[in-house]
Recover the amino acids of this structure.
């Protein structure tokens, strides 16, 4: 059974006003924070689960990670909240490491404004060639994951009209977004070397493809999702991504070729998913023509059903997807909170409670 792990980035906010607080360094100064890591800005932190085989264990670790981060944030007078962007205006402050200083110098406003929180899902692969074969085959299925995770409608104090504005902001980095087919591990590594040789991307950690080979672990890392407001939605995403990886690996071993859909079409699919989330129409991963969002995500589940059944994950995946489609993702919760009182502070305070409620 393939190991799966999750990295979640959370905002650090003032518990009274909902504005972001630059207290990451204070949180990390406390002992017992081995699972916590600094990010680009001091108003956010990341935690990571350990690799898991069982979905139940992964769910437990996600909840424990959120609770642990929330407790540590409260110890310095802040709250941790699973929002992919700050609803309130924010002027982020850089984490002062040599690498982040270089990023700020090289990328200017792109780095300065990049206060976004994502969810990165790692799934084990057996080799570079298997990993690249997986990346080639899951490309059309990544846009629906953006729609499922949409949790960033507000940007710099206003409604962006997007379900995931984080994905738009993240797309400013020069290597971000969908990729063309690679065809082999050697071709993938050759492209990475060529990108690094331009001296535009600072290091391999800045290869920000929507799905990439991790430079630290023997995994495929899927990077398209917003951090989810609800922990259950993170579990669903991890379940679906592992199902996609297993399905793609089986297709590769069986000699079934990947869909040759061009990257510009995939970019349009990702844009549409970022724009409307589950509320509109997505590009169907098979036909690449518009279809109702609910139909597309249900087709995604059907596509990975054989793999999920073999992994023992089908029943929880069906239940979690039904739950998400019924209540909506974080974007619906944020807009509902704003509609009730017209207060972006209330949006954040409501989200604080939902970050650690299950």
């Amino acid at each position: 059974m393939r190991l799966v792990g999750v990295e979640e980035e959370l905002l650090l906010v003032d518990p009274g006003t909902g504005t972001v607080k630059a207290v990451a360094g204070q949180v990390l100064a406390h002992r017992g924070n081995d699972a916590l890591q600094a990010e680009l800005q001091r108003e956010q932190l990341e935690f990571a689960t350990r690799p898991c085989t069982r979905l139940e264990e992964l769910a437990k670790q996600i909840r424990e990670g959120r609770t642990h981060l929330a407790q540590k944030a409260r110890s310095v007078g802040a709250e941790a909240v699973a929002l992919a962007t700050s609803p309130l205006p924010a002027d982020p402050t850089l984490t002062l490491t040599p690498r982040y200083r270089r990023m700020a110098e090289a990328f200017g406003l792109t780095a300065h404004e990049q206060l976004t929180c994502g969810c990165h899902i790692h799934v084990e692969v057996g080799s570079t060639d298997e990993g690249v074969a997986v990346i080639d085959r899951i490309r059309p299925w990544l846009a629906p994951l953006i729609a499922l995770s949409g949790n960033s409608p507000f940007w710099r104090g206003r409604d962006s009209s997007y379900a995931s504005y984080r994905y738009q902001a993240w797309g400013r980095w020069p290597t971000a977004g969908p990729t063309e087919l690679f065809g082999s591990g050697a071709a993938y590594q050759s492209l990475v070397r060529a990108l690094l040789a331009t001296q535009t991307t600072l290091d391999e950690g800045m290869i920000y493809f929507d799905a990439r080979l991790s430079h630290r672990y023997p995994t495929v890392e899927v990077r398209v999702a917003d951090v989810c407001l609800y922990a259950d939605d993170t579990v669903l995403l991890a379940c679906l991504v592992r199902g996609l990886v297993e399905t793609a690996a089986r297709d590769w071993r069986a000699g079934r070729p990947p869909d040759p859909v061009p990257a510009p079409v995939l970019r349009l699919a990702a844009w549409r998913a970022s724009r409307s989330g589950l509320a509109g129409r997505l590009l169907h991963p098979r036909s690449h023509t518009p279809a109702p969002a609910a139909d597309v995500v249900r087709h995604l589940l059907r596509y990975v059903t054989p793999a999920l059944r073999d992994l023992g994950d089908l029943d929880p995946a069906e239940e979690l997807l039904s739950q998400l489609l019924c209540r909506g993702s974080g974007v619906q919760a944020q807009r509902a909170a704003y509609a009730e009182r017209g207060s972006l502070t209330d949006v954040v305070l409501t989200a604080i409670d939902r970050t650690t409620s299950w």
